[in-house]
Write a sequence for this structure.
């Protein structure tokens, strides 16, 4: 951040003293000043920075406050002391952005007074201190005119002709705008659609913003868009969620907002679309596996695809993954290029050259800022770290960048000590760094989290910046009109840069004499590098064409084989369908026969039941006949026995003189 001129670790100890942590301080001061979650995190980061990883035993259950503090510290794991210091200051600035000025008000701070018309031998910064042990902080710069009145009172001479009011080239000029001025902010997004610059979201005093502002180039007039959020198929409208650290991309006269930090982060990266015609936001439906949610990432439009790199997730973990969203099919693709990728980082910038090369520059981790340049060949999917010529850019994070032709312009950013003052340009064909202009003091251009867009107005190309944070939130608009020489200048701007009373920041080539021979030799050297690069590119193109032809022949042969195989499969499919038809008919015939047999079986079962009943009746008759036969046999036997008795009784009676029975004889 660019909130103070102190370097680490002094900056961390100053922040810790303000927060109420340190020697002779109690934790209750932190809890009373900040929210409980922020106070716990600040305490844990302070312990991690000063003591190291948590190795003390966990407190007992009956001490819940100490347990909570121990847990917060223990969760940081092996986080380094430097990273803990940087995170501590960053969280304090989000919770209390004015902490630095409050410390400044209570100490004997130096005075910084940058005058537009200062003499060459006049010091730009006067420093006073009452004690050598006191921490000194630079004050915000004061811009004055010859008569000492503020610069804002000198804007009467500005003619409202849109961007045409910027008369000089390669110099930043503050624009005089009208209408309701947006709230000052940083980490917002900016995009240009139909001669208008749209500003969405951002961070102010640690709070995320969700408003949408628009600046008309013609009249330089601000206005607020009362945008609604279209919630799904129900058609209900609500407001869009505030966010910061997102990216705005202009696509087909609409604006895409990708990612960003929110109060309630989602698990995956969301893509929202704003339609200027209807004034509504809507969530775009994507396919495939989307990347995790993040902020501080870079989004680059390459043809009809968005290339997303790096950033910081909701848990403050740095990323260096590469994801691509095809805007034609709205499909995500997770890429894994070969080569050494950039280290995990956030708040970097990315640009595209020749619809093929993705360039990544700068950014920061939790402990340091970077000044490295990485290039990804989108066709070969290979990372490389090229050697560059010209000036050597300093480390920075939170800067902004745009491409115009072969030139990549870089503005602003911070290096953990102060804001970066120079405006850089990289000739992407020759890989030559140059400085266009620079500024001195704490001006909005030397800020983190500012936005930068490019617009062509009346045949001229303009860079336009808005907002930023360098210890003070900004809502100012600056413009720089590009000249044809912007991409080939390679002079290093050093020392103080004079500023005129009209509020325009002058460049070195206007305040110092440039050696023509040096400039000619440097330009010729750049042309030689460009010619050499073109010849190498032609050779590379020829080899690529040969490889593509060979690959085409292989693909055609493979296509012929696939067509033959397809015909064979079609024939097999037709035969299978014919067999299927025959089997279906046979199955229907078998089902008909089965139904007939089932009917016969049913009739047979009925006949069998009747026969069983008749058999039972026959058995009963047989038993009855057998009984009658027995009765008949018994009757016949009885009759025989009776006759025998009669015959034996008559003879003995005759012998003994017993007369026969008359009843028997009769």
């Amino acid at each position: 951040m660019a909130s103070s001129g102190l370097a680490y670790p002094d900056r961390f100890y100053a922040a810790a003293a303000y927060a109420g942590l340190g020697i002779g301080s109690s934790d209750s001061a932190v809890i009373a000043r900040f929210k409980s979650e922020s106070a716990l995190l600040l305490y844990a980061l302070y312990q991690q920075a000063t003591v190291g990883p948590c190795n003390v035993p966990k407190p007992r259950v009956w001490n819940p406050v100490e347990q909570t503090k121990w847990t917060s510290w223990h969760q940081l794991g092996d986080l380094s002391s430097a990273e803990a210091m940087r995170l501590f200051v960053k969280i304090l600035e989000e919770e209390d952005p004015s902490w630095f000025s409050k410390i400044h008000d209570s100490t004997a701070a130096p005075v910084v007074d940058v005058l537009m018309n200062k003499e060459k031998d006049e010091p730009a910064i006067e420093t006073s201190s009452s004690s050598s042990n006191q921490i000194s902080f630079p004050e915000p710069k004061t811009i004055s005119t010859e008569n000492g009145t503020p610069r804002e009172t000198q804007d009467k001479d500005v003619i409202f002709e849109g961007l045409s009011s910027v008369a000089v080239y390669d110099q930043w000029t503050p624009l005089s705008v009208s209408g309701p001025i947006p709230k000052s902010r940083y980490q917002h997004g900016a995009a240009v659609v139909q001669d208008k610059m749209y500003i969405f979201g951002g961070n102010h005093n640690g709070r995320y913003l969700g408003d949408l502002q628009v600046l008309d180039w013609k009249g330089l007039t601000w206005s607020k868009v009362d945008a609604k959020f279209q919630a799904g198929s129900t058609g209900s409208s609500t407001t869009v969620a505030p966010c910061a650290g997102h990216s705005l991309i202009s696509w087909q006269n609409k604006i895409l907002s990708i990612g960003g930090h929110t109060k309630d982060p989602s698990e995956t990266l969301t893509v929202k679309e704003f339609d200027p015609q209807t004034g509504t936001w809507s969530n775009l439906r994507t396919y495939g596996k989307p990347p995790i949610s993040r902020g501080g990432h870079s989004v680059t439009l390459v043809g009809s695809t968005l290339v997303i790199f790096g950033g910081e997730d909701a848990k403050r973990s740095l990323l260096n993954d590469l994801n691509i969203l095809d805007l034609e099919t709205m499909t995500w693709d997770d890429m894994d290029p070969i080569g050494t990728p950039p280290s995990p980082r956030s708040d970097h910038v990315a640009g595209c050259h020749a619809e093929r090369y993705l360039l990544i520059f700068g950014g920061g981790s939790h402990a340091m800022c970077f000044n490295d340049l990485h290039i990804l060949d989108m066709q070969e999917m290979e990372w490389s770290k090229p050697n560059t010529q010209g000036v050597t850019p300093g480390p920075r994070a939170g800067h902004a960048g745009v491409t115009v032709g072969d030139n990549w312009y870089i503005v602003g950013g911070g290096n953990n000590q102060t804001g970066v003052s120079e405006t850089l340009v990289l000739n992407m064909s020759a890989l030559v760094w140059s400085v266009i202009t620079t500024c001195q003091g704490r001006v909005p251009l030397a800020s983190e989290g500012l936005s930068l867009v490019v617009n062509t107005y009346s045949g001229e190309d303009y860079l336009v910046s808005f907002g930023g944070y360098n210890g003070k939130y900004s809502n100012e608009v600056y413009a720089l009109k590009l000249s044809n020489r912007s991409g080939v200048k390679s002079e290093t701007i050093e020392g103080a840069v004079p500023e005129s009373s009209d509020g325009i920041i002058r460049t070195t080539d206007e305040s110092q004499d440039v050696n023509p021979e040096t400039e000619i030799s440097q330009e010729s050297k750049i042309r030689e590098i460009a010619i050499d690069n073109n010849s190498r590119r032609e050779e590379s193109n020829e080899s690529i064409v040969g490889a593509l032809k060979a690959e085409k022949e292989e693909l055609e042969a493979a296509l012929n084989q696939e067509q033959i195989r397809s015909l064979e499969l079609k024939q097999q499919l037709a035969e299978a369908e014919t067999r299927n038809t025959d089997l279906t008919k046979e199955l229907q015939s078998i089902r008909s026969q089965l139904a007939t047999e089932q009917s016969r079986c049913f009739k047979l079962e009925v006949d069998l039941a009747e026969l069983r009943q008749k058999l039972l009746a026959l058995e009963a008759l047989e038993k009855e006949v057998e009984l009658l036969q027995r009765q008949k046999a018994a009757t016949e036997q009885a009759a025989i026995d009776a006759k025998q008795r009669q015959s034996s009784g008559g003879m003995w009676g005759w012998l003994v003189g017993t007369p026969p029975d008359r009843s028997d004889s009769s």
User: Anything to note?
Assistant: The first helix runs from residue 10 to 19. Residues 439 and 662 are 174 Å apart (CA to CA).
